[in-house]
C-alpha cells in the first residue's frame, strides 16, 4: 500500500476532486442552467486545471471520455451510485468492479456509504470487498461518507459528520468526503475524529464565489485536506476562475478575500 501522500490524486497533502456523477445521482436537472455541461467532455476540460487532482465519474462516462484525457486528468472511478428515481431507504448499487476500474485507468476508486440507512450492513460489506480489492492495485479509496436514512434526522449536524469521518477511518478509507457541518469548529472535530485519514468537504449546491471560498477557507483552517466538488465548479460561467481561486485557498492557504482579489 503506497502512502496516500504519494498518490497521484494528492498534491502537497491535499486534493481537489472534481465530481461529475450528478447525471446519475440527481438526473439531468443539475444541467438545466448549463446545458452545454451535459457533454462530459466540457467538464473533463475543466479537470485539466492544475488545481484538480482527480475527476470522479461513473463507469459509463469514464469508458466514453477518459481515453481522450488520460494524459491530463487522474481518474477517480465511482464504484457505486443511485439515481433520484429510487424512492427506497438510501442505498447505492455497485455498478463497477475494482478490477475493471483499474483496467480503464483509474488512479483511485470512490464508494458511497450511507451510515444509518437500513442498508448500512450490506453497504459496509460491499465496501469491504472494494477496499480490499483496491489495496491489491494500490488504488486509494475515497468514501462518500453520507449518514442518512430512517434514523438520521439531520445529515449535516456536527455529531453526524464526526461520526461519518470516524466510520470512514474505521472501515479503511484513505479519504472521507463529508458534508460541511456548519462551522469551522465542527469541521475541526470531524477532522480530529478521522485520525490520520484525510477529510475533504463535499461541495453542495451552488453558492456565491465569496460564500463558497469562505467555507473552503474555514474547512482548510479546520485541518481538512481539500474538496470534492461538483456543482460549485462546473455550474459556474467561468469554472477556471474559481479553480484559480480555490488553488490559492487550498494549496497556498490564502484567505478567500485574497484569492478573490487576485483572480477577479
Ligand atoms: P456537489 O459538490 O455538486 O454537491 O457534488 C458532490 C456529490 O457528492 C456528488 O459526487 C454527488 O453526485 C452529489 O454530491 C450527491 O449529492 P446528494 O446525495 O447530497 O444529493
UniProtKB/TrEMBL annotation:
Annotated EC: 4.1.2.13
GO molecular function, one term: fructose-bisphosphate aldolase activity
Pfam families reported in the protein's UniProt record: DeoC (PF01791)
Root EC class: lyase
Domain of life: Archaea
Active-site annotation: 146 (proton donor), 177 (schiff-base intermediate with dihydroxyacetone-p)
SUPFAM superfamilies hit by this protein: Aldolase (SSF51569)
InterPro entries assigned to the protein according to its UniProt record, in alphabetical order: Aldolase_TIM (IPR013785), DeoC/FbaB/LacD_aldolase (IPR002915), DeoC/FbaB_aldolase (IPR050456), FbaB-like (IPR041720)
PANTHER family cross-referenced by the UniProt entry: 3-HYDROXY-5-PHOSPHONOOXYPENTANE-2,4-DIONE THIOLASE, FRUCTOSE-BISPHOSPHATE ALDOLASE CLASS 1
Protein family (similarity comment): Belongs to the DeoC/FbaB aldolase family.
Protein name, as recorded: fructose-bisphosphate aldolase
Species in which this protein is naturally found: Natrarchaeobius chitinivorans
Upper lineage: Archaea, Methanobacteriati, Methanobacteriota, Stenosarchaea group, Halobacteria
